[in-house]
Amino acid sequence: MIPVGFEYVRATSVDEAISLLVEHGEEATLLAGGHSLLPVMKLRLAAPEVLIDIGRLSELSYIRVEGDEIAIGAGTKHRALEASELLAKECPLLPAAAHTVGDPQVRHRGTIGGSLAHGDPASDLPAAVLALGGTIVLRSPRGQRTVPITGFYTGVFSTVRDPDEVIVEVRVPRTGGAGWAYEKFVRRANDWAIVAVAVVDGRIGLANMGPTPLRASAAEAALADGASIEEAAALADQATDPVSDVPATAEYRRHLARVLTKRALTTAAGAAG
Amino acid sequence: MKVAITVNGQETTADVEPRLLLVHYLRDVLGLKATNIGCDTTSCGACTVLLDGESVKSCTVLAAQADGSSVTTLEGLSSGPDDLHPVAAAFRAEHGLQCGFCTPGMVMAAVGLLSENPKPTEREVRDGLEGNLCRCTGYHNIVRAVIAASGQDPDEVTGTSPRPGVERSPAGGVAAAPGFSTGGAE
Does A104 contact B61 at a Cβ distance shorter than 8 Å? Predict the structure, then answer.
């Protein structure tokens, strides 16, 4: 499968990438790892006229502590998240979720910024960052703004990112010894989640339970009010809107959300220290 | 556009369309046909090569993205049939293939895995090869091959009893590894 022809430009800095986005307008698309974009281009579901490659920008590849947060460059690859000793210690949910993305070859190319920008509701990292209460830093000719991930997604594959904005950073809290777990249900190797549940510090993020990643707010509230794990997990599918498709019916997804939430909360309770 | 990619240690350059995939650059521009195209959808891993030392699926990388990088294909691993790379030798010794279609990608994924994790457990090998599909072998002997190539005894690591009368493969002893293996205690 061959994509429709396009012009390729390799940006040498984030500022240059932004200038190129301004110059080419909505005909241009950013290319990082390309593991969401190139498959849809090969299927000709997308046909951007200009690809602006930001995949090699070292200024977008870092993981560092900043106060009570960890700042992660948007171009950081899944493999780097997975292998980060800093994250393993300070925010272990994120590398655990990153480890379940695709397969090693995919994780060598895919980036956290690309995964968040793509906005596939079945993706792992958006649900994990949502459970973490992370924020997304975007840069454009108008300057820099920070958007909490709770306000980032507007629908399937849709975000509040403007066409001339580049995601430059993802910020997540240092969760230290807080209990956490990532439960992902798949039926084939290297597949997307049928449903996945991320839990950290009493917050619950759901993947593939609606058009965007969702918080299981009813279950979280029940937990905060002293409900048992069983009681809280039974509420995990409230206010969700899962689809029925080839891998699973909506009702089965609701069942999975409850079961996986119970498992994740149980694991997180055992892991808290 | 012009790309310059070091492939198996050789500098290569070509004028290509930006949409040319790396796998087509390797096969059609350079004529290196060991790298197979299987699913063409980033699933099967048959097109796996090393890009700057890391395993990638070359059906999902543009040649343009590899401009200025180093690529290793199966052709670049061994100098000849009598001097196989340890991973290729282990695949032969452990019968880690049947039809052979997945093998170039499987070997390259295994080389990438061992560079990140030189002494993997059986579980780590199975996880590490998650991105490579084989429809013949049931993976058993592929896993043994990767363990043997890591210098470990596949019988020991997989908890398989050695077959009676067959010399145990010494650690890293790819050349002395036993032939066809059905696994399980005998």
Answer: no
